[in-house]
Design brief:
71% of the residues lie in helices and 0% in strands. By secondary structure, the protein is mostly helical. It is globular and about 75 Å long. It starts with 5 loop residues before the first helix and ends with a helix.
């Protein structure tokens, strides 16, 4: 076996440093969340315990943590559902050129380059001028869609650009209607990508801060609640919350990836 070149070890070291830079802050918060009851926000640790995790579930004056979590979760599901539906419909629509399709495409993805805080400010102003209540489930929902929809559309455009239309032609030759062709032929083929779009929609919504800042109304989502806690909470309970939300995010990602794996296994069978 030939020895590896020196460049391999340099690249390996560089990649290891990159991973450490990427996940180092998360690991640091995870470690500090296990401070003892007398522990603070920095090293050195004063004991090791799960005290601050238990503290999260006790009545305390650090904000509406679990209410914010429920709102973020529900909002994430709403954004996920809307992103999936609109992305699929947009992908189907753009399979053929139509008048204004180019302008509509650039208009659909333009929000990716607009500063998020300006989108939040503009959405809040529109709702205020129309006399509508600024609320996380209405204005917050709309503001977050300007962030998730472009990603979903780009994914579905790529999927349908590689889609072989002969599958649909074969289904129609067998007498299938347009809906039957989509439900029984197209959707099963693109389903892994649809799950990916759903993951994009939920994860981008769940941790979105800037576009929710001025559109959430009187009730905070979880990112806003955590931001508020950074200004008045001086105990490791905020680290415990960060650790739990990180674990929840990884569980959700694992669930989506597991669904893709099961679909792939089922298709091979």
């Amino acid at each position: 076996m030939e020895p590896r070149p020196r460049s391999f070890w340099w690249l390996t070291a560089f990649f290891a440093l990159f991973v450490l830079f990427l996940y180092g802050p998360t690991l640091t918060i995870g470690i500090l969340s296990f401070q003892g009851p007398e522990g603070g926000l920095t090293f050195p640790m004063r004991g090791v315990s799960t005290y601050w995790f238990h503290n999260l579930f006790e009545q305390q004056a650090v904000g509406d943590i679990w209410g914010a979590f429920r709102r973020s979760f529900v909002l994430g599901l709403m954004v996920m559902a809307a992103t999936v539906v609109v992305a699929i419909m947009g992908g189907l629509a753009f399979r053929k050129r139509f008048l204004g399709s180019g302008a509509l495409f650039y208009l659909a993805i333009a929000s990716l380059v607009i500063p998020s805080i300006l989108v939040s400010l503009g959405t809040g102003l529109v709702f205020d001028r129309l006399g509508l209540k600024v609320h996380w489930a209405t204005s917050g929902f709309g503001a977050q869609l300007t962030w998730t929809l472009p990603f979903g559309l780009l994914v579905m455009f790529a999927v349908f650009n590689r889609f072989n239309p002969s599958f649909e032609e074969a289904a129609r030759d067998q007498g299938a209607t347009a809906w039957q062709t989509f439900a029984h032929v197209v959707l099963p083929i693109i389903l892994p990508s649809v799950i990916g779009v759903a993951l994009f929609g939920f994860s981008l919504s769940y941790d979105e801060f800037a576009r929710t800042l001025l559109t959430a109304g009187s009730y905070n989502t979880l990112p806003l609640e955590i931001f508020g806690m950074t200004t008045n909470v001086t105990k490791p309970v905020i680290y415990a919350l960060g650790t739990l939300t990180t674990i929840f995010s990884f569980v959700m990602i694992g669930g989506f990836l597991g669904a893709v794996w099961l679909l792939g296994k089922r298709r091979k069978a």
